[in-house]
Design a protein that fits this description.
Length: 322
């Protein structure tokens, strides 16, 4: 009867929940912050059921750990301390948030014991990991720095002048359905184009080069907003993501660059685009391109003719959009 009050608790600040007492402990690691590489915690004996420990389980702790590709564990069976070393590359490469969970059991010499569950949510902004073509090969967009060389779709080398990003969390996605990303499946535009799934904002423009484009719009290559190319199969709105981070690269002029093997536009700071970035990012852009503050059109024309969403929808019937 006395065993009913035998209890262990995580004591470093995880969120506790459970029916009879706190027996499920949850925490999140936001990998959009590059400094987040580990998750640490500690279990203590907590017979007061208040989530505050004071001593250790007399017979120590047994950790029942999973085999996971997303990191490795270091545990201490005497103190109840644990560390999960995150494999950031593996989580980001997975393209979605991941969950790692395990159980820990504390016990004493009388046979009393308590088993709790730990849940670690590994959160990413899913557009991280997008590969940008550079003279040195493909590089993840989040690794690029101002001044780095990037290859344009027509084979030139241009230096990055400005980098911006915006992470949109689940709450904002719930409030504004139009912010969910468009997923362009690998091979949607032909073999290895793109060379893997690509997530872009709905307004982000994709280069479409097709005889139909010339017939309809008088130019063999055009920039079509992703949301105008939706086809319910290879180009779709992805509402499964918990959050998404949209990156912007700006050069001395508007460019078409290669992302995951697909030609897409660089950032073009017109009035609409400037409204979509936060104040700090806009101020940084104004420092690099001072004239933009007084004239949003000073940056120059689009690299290619741009289409409205309804015009882009006409191209979604083209054989080049598989």
């Amino acid at each position: 009867m006395g065993f009913i009050f035998y209890n262990i608790s995580e004591v470093t600040g995880f969120t506790g929940s459970g029916t009879a007492n706190l027996d499920i402990w949850t925490t999140s690691a936001d990998l959009s912050d590059p400094s987040v590489t580990t998750v640490t915690g500690d279990f203590d004996l907590d017979n007061n059921l208040d989530g505050v420990g004071g001593s250790e389980a007399q017979d120590g702790y047994v950790f029942n750990l999973p085999v996971t590709p997303y990191g490795t564990f270091v545990t201490n069976s005497t103190t109840g301390e644990f560390t999960f070393i995150i494999d950031r590359a593996a989580v980001i490469a997975s393209g979605s948030d991941q969950v790692v969970s395990f159980t820990v059991t504390g016990s004493d010499a009388s046979g009393a014991s308590d088993t709790d569950t730990v849940v670690i949510n590994l959160l990413i902004c899913v557009s991280r990991g997008t590969l940008i073509a550079t003279p040195a090969g493909e590089r993840p967009v989040e690794d690029l720095l101002i001044g780095d060389d990037v290859l344009t779709a027509d084979g030139r080398t241009e230096q990055v002048r400005w980098i911006g990003s915006r992470c949109i969390d689940a709450a904002e996605l719930d409030r504004n359905d139009s912010l969910f990303p468009v997923r362009i499946r690998g091979n949607a535009f032909g073999h290895d184009v793109p060379n893997g799934d690509l997530l872009v904002s709905p307004q982000h423009r994709i280069q479409v080069q097709d005889p139909l484009a010339e017939m309809l719009f008088g130019h063999p290559a055009v920039l079509a907003p992703a949301k105008g190319l939706l086809n319910d199969s290879t180009i779709t709105v992805d509402r499964s993501v918990a959050e998404v981070e949209y990156f912007h690269l700006a050069f001395d002029q508007h460019e078409v660059i290669v992302t995951n093997g697909l030609a897409t536009e660089s950032f073009h700071p017109g009035p609409t685009s400037l409204d979509g970035i936060d104040r700090d990012a806009a101020n940084e852009l104004y420092e690099i391109f001072p004239g933009l503050k007084s004239n949003a059109n000073e940056f120059g024309p689009s690299a290619l003719p741009g289409l409205k969403p309804w015009e882009a929808a006409l191209l979604s019937k083209s054989s080049k959009v598989a």
